Amino acid sequence: MTPLLQVQHLSKAFGGNQAVNDVSFDLKAGEMLALIGPNGAGKSTTFHLINGQLAPDAGNVLLNGNSILGLAPHALSRLGVSRTFQMAQTFASLTVLENVQMALLSADGLDFSLWRKAAPYRRTDALHLLTQVQLDSQAQRPCHALAYGDVKRLELAMSLANQPRLLLMDEPTAGMSPQERQALMNLIRGLVDTQGLAVLFTEHSMDVVFEHAHRILVMARGGLIAQRSEERR
Ligand code: ADP
Ligand code: MG
After folding, report:
1. Which of 26, 121, 165, 202 could form a disulfide with 80 if both were Cys (CB 3.0 to 4.6 A apart)?
2. How far apart (Å, rounded) are the C-alpha atoms in residues 56 and 38?
3. 201-218 burial, b for 16+ CB within 10 Å, e for fewer?
4. Whose C-alpha lies nearest to ligand 1, atom 7?
C-alpha cells in the first residue's frame, strides 16, 4: 500500500548552510512519527518543506502517491494536510467556540470577513470539535481567559476543522507544563488510534516521545542519522 506521506531526498540550503540534506522517510495512516534532534538539526526546515512554506532545492513530497510540492496552503488543507495553529492565530477577544467556527469558515474556503454575519456558522460541528479536545465546557469563555494548555488544545481543535489525514506539529507542547504535555499528547494519540490520523511531530521531552511515538527519526546537521520503532506499541 502507498504510504500516506512520502518524503523523498529532500534538501534545502540557506546560503552555504545545508539545513536539510537528502532526507527521506514515509508515514502511514494511523502512525505517530517523532522527529528529534538537537537545535539547528533541520527539523523545522523539514516541516516547512513538507507544508509548503519553503521550496526544496531537491527532492519531492508525495501525499497518497501524488506530489504536493508547490501547492498553496488552502490546496494542502483540502487534501487533508493540517498544521497546528499557532497562538497568534487564535482570536483573543472571541470566545473559544467562535474561534473554532472561524477555523471551520476557513476550512470551507470562506473569508473571515463574513464572520459578523455568520455567527451561527456550523455551531454544532464546532462544539463537536471542542468535545474532541475536552474543551466543550469552556466554549463560551473568551480565549484570553484560557490557561496556556487550554489554548494549545483550542489550537488543536482548530487544526482539526478541515478533517485532516495528516497533522504536522512542530513543537506542539512548547511552553507547557509536564501535565499539560501529557494531556495534549494523549488527546492526539486518541485521534491517531480512533481515526487513523497520521502525525509528524517534534518534541523536546524524551518522555513524551518514547511514550507516544510509534517510530522515531533522529536528525543531526541536516541528515537523518537513525531511526527506531517502538516495538512495545
Ligand atoms: P531545528 O528546527 O532542528 O532546530 P532548523 O530547521 O530551524 O532546525 O534550522 C536548521 C538550520 O538552518 C540552522 O542552522 C538554522 O540556522 C538554519 N535556518 C533555518 N531557517 C533559516 C532561514 N530562514 N534562513 C537562514 N537559515 C535558516
Ligand atoms: Mg525547530
Report:
1. 165
2. 21
3. bbbeeeebbeebbbbbbb
4. 44
Mean pLDDT of 173-198: 90
Tell me how far the alpha carbon of residue 96 lies from the centroid of ligand 1, in angstroms: 33
- How many alpha carbons lie under 13 Å from residue 204 in its C-beta half-sphere? 11
Q: Give the residue, by CA position, lying nearest to ligand 1 atom 23.
A: 14
CA of 86 to the centre of ligand 1 (A): 19
Considering the entire predicted model, what is its pTM? 0.91
How does pLDDT run across 81-117, given as a tens digit for each residue? 998 755 556 678 889 999 999 888 888 877 766 666 5
Q: Are 199 and 192 in contact (CB under 8 A)?
A: yes
Distance, in Å, from the CA atom of 190 to the CA atom of 178, rounded to the nearest integer, reads: 18
Task: State residue 115's pLDDT score.
Answer: 62
Across the range 206-229, mean pLDDT stands at 93
39 alpha carbon – ligand 2 mean position (Å): 7
Which residues' Cβ are closer than 6 Å to ligand 1? 14, 17, 19, 37, 39-45
User: Ligand 1: distance of its center to the CA of 79 in Å?
Assistant: 27
Q: Which three cell numbers stand for residue 227?
A: 531511526
